[in-house]
Amino acid sequence: MVGKIILSIMQSLDGYIADKNYHSDFLEGYGGSQLSDVSTLEEGFDFAKINDVEMIVMGHKTFEQGYHEAYPEQTIYIISRENQRNDGRIHFVTPTRIVKLMLAKKRQGKNILLIGGGLAVRPFIRANAIDQYVIGTVPYIQGSGRRLFYPQDQPLPLQLESVDVMGGLTLSVYSPR
Fold first, then answer.
1. What distances in angstroms separate CA 159 from CA 33, 34, 94, 177, one per listed residue?
2. What is the pTM of this model?
3. Cα distance between residue 55 and residue 160, in whole Å
């Protein structure tokens, strides 16, 4: 059985995942008093499934902000240009090697969660290696900062699989066409 590479990330309405200083405290849903949670899925989106992965891949800035601490059981791969020593379940991998390594893990049946910013996501998009895009959008216009996606050389057509509205945020799930 082949695994999946899943990108999960939150963004502002105008496509930013953090401000210029990598702060993302604005990424919170605010629902109006008349808003009800809705889903195109029978059961609604199941966050437990997305966290039921064996491996987490994140960028170095995401690691520095402590996001790896939310995944105490998983093997963590940090995309880094710096030559750092692996530490137990935390492994540092260069951007040029990460996609090839994760595709090999996927072929072994591993499910991999990709979190972090545009620099971490970019090599996976270029290789068309992401099986599922889980994008949360919050009602906030950031105006500037760190973009969800950096410019790409080629367009990547996706198809919308499901949409959920939960507590003031919209969660859209896409897959490659």
1. 31, 29, 30, 6
2. 0.89
3. 25
